[in-house]
Every structure is written in structure tokens, then in C-alpha cells.
């Protein structure tokens, strides 16, 4: 986590790296994601969410204090604290008992999907304020850690709707053939957006899918060539060979998904 990474950088006198890490955490984790995710709870007056948000801000100000002492001190005096000054508070230390790798995996899965949906919206010039319906195709056996993908999406529908401006999220085993969809891959999600007249730029989406498919096929060719190289197979560590074969399987699966997504443009 950020506390462990920051402490490690400071202890090794890597001050630029430390400053860069806290900068990216504040902007890209705390502001872009956490604050947006907690807004619905705050609107409902959830006191627990408020307390966690204040505590998180307190820890961030402590981490940032060595780099911006005066500004952090001023902001810190506007949040509840038993200490008189930020400069005399203890510097945060990582707690391994609070680390939740399962939650990290689930959050990464959700972030990839939401970012992918936003990208598809932007590339097709779907107005940010325009609410759209979303269909997600999942296979029952696919999991993220211990939980099924469908369960994670279903449990976090509210967040997906808020962060991607979705009207309704529907989880399906397959996309209905009688309906016309704009299909795409959002992270590891296979998604479809029901086509509404005047909303999508279909030509642009076709070009995007073809470009991504070409990239995947090129990557597959490179890995296949590497796995045909006897020097690589004989000299590389077994773990590296195994990882390379796994990457090839994943890319082949991805290739099939992208081909299916492109099928909407077939005559």
C-alpha cells in the first residue's frame, strides 16, 4: 500500500519517488476513485463513511506533510484531532493486518471495467451526461479471487451506475440476438450497450475494434514465435515459460472476445 511504499522510498532517500507516489495516490486513488465511490453514502448521511473519509484525509495529510508542511498544517487544523499540531503527530506506519488482497483484486476488476466503459463512451462521443443501459456478459465459473465476477458486479451496481453514468446494469449469460448492441471489451468485461439512434459513432467504434484486434494478433505472433524458440524453452526459468504460455492463452481468449465484439459490423 501507499504507506509501506512511501516509507520504503523515504528510508532509502528516494525523495522524488516518494513525492511521486503520494501525488499519484492522492489524485488517482483518493480523488478519482475513493471520493467518487463514497459520495452516495455521504449523501445518505452515513456517519461511518464520514468518519472513514476524515480518517483517510488525516493519514494523507500526515504522509504529505514532509513535502508540503505549511499547506498540510493549515488544512489539518480544519479536521477533528486530539493533537495541537500536525508536526508533532506520528508518521503513518503500514499495518499488515489491515491489508486485504481479496478486496484489492475486486477493486482492480471494477476499476478496469468502469474505465473501459468510460473509454468506449468517449470514443463514440456519447455525451457524458447521457445515461445509457449496460449489459455485461459473464460466465458463472469465472472468478476474481474467491468471488464470481457476476457476484462482484451485482454487489457493486450502484457504484458502476454512478461512475459510468449507467441507467441500468443487466448481467447476462449471452447477449440477445434479436437486439442490436454496441459491443466492446472493458478491462476483462465483455459488455454491450443497446444502440439508440443518434447516440453512437459506429464507424469510429469499428475502427477501434479493428485496431485493438490487430494489436492482440501481433502480440500473439510474438509470443508464439518465442515459444517456438528452443533456446528460450531450454534456457528460460520454468516459471517464465509457464507465465508466457499463460499469457498466450489469455491473449487467444481476448482475441475471440474482440472478434465477437466486432460481429455487430458484419453484413
UniProtKB/TrEMBL annotation:
The keyword Coiled coil applies. GO terms for molecular function: ATP binding; valine-tRNA ligase activity. It is an enzyme of class 6 (ligase). Its EC number is 6.1.1.9. Residues 202-259 form the Valyl-tRNA synthetase tRNA-binding arm domain. GO terms for biological process: valyl-tRNA aminoacylation. Pfam families: Anticodon_1, Val_tRNA-synt_C. Keywords: Aminoacyl-tRNA synthetase, ATP-binding, Coiled coil, Ligase, Nucleotide-binding, Protein biosynthesis. Residues 199-261 form a coiled coil. One of its GO terms (cellular component) is cytosol. Residues 2-134 form the Methionyl/Valyl/Leucyl/Isoleucyl-tRNA synthetase anticodon-binding domain. The keyword Transcription does not apply. It catalyses: tRNA(Val) + L-valine + ATP = L-valyl-tRNA(Val) + AMP + diphosphate. This is valine--tRNA ligase. It comes from marine sediment metagenome.
Amino acid at each position: 500500500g501507499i504507506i509501506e511504499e512511501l516509507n520504503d522510498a523515504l528510508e532509502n532517500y528516494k525523495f522524488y519517488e516518494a513525492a511521486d507516489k503520494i501525488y499519484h495516490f492522492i489524485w488517482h486513488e483518493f480523488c478519482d476513485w475513493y471520493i467518487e465511490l463514497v459520495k452516495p453514502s455521504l449523501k445518505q448521511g452515513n456517519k461511518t463513511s464520514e468518519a472513514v473519509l476524515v480518517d483517510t484525509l488525516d493519514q494523507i495529510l500526515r504522509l504529505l506533510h514532509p513535502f508540503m508542511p505549511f499547506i498540510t498544517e493549515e488544512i489539518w487544523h480544519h479536521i477533528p484531532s486530539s493533537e495541537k499540531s500536525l508536526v508533532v503527530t506520528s508518521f503513518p506506519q503500514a499495518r499488515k493486518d489491515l491489508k486485504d488482497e481479496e478486496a484489492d483484486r475486486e477493486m482492480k476488476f471494477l476499476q478496469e471495467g468502469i474505465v473501459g466503459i468510460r473509454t468506449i463512451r468517449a470514443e463514440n462521443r456519447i455525451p457524458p451526461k447521457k445515461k445509457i443501459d449496460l449489459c455485461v456478459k459473464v460466465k458463472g465459473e469465472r472468478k476474481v479471487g474467491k468471488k464470481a465476477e457476476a457476484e462482484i458486479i451485482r454487489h457493486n451496481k450502484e457504484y458502476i451506475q454512478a461512475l459510468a453514468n449507467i441507467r441500468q446494469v443487466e448481467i447476462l449469460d449471452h447477449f440477445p440476438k434479436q437486439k442490436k448492441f454496441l459491443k466492446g471489451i472493458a478491462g476483462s468485461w465483455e459488455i454491450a450497450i443497446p444502440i439508440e439512434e443518434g447516440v453512437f459513432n459506429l464507424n469510429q467504434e469499428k475502427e477501434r475494434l479493428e485496431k485493438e484486434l490487430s494489436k492482440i494478433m501481433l502480440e500473439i505472433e510474438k509470443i508464439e514465435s518465442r515459444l517456438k524458440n528452443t533456446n528460450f524453452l531450454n534456457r528460460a526459468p520454468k516459471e517464465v515459460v509457464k507465465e508466457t504460455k499463460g499469457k498466450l492463452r489469455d491473449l487467444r481468449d481476448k482475441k475471440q472476445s474482440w472478434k465477437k465484439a466486432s460481429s455487430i459490423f458484419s453484413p
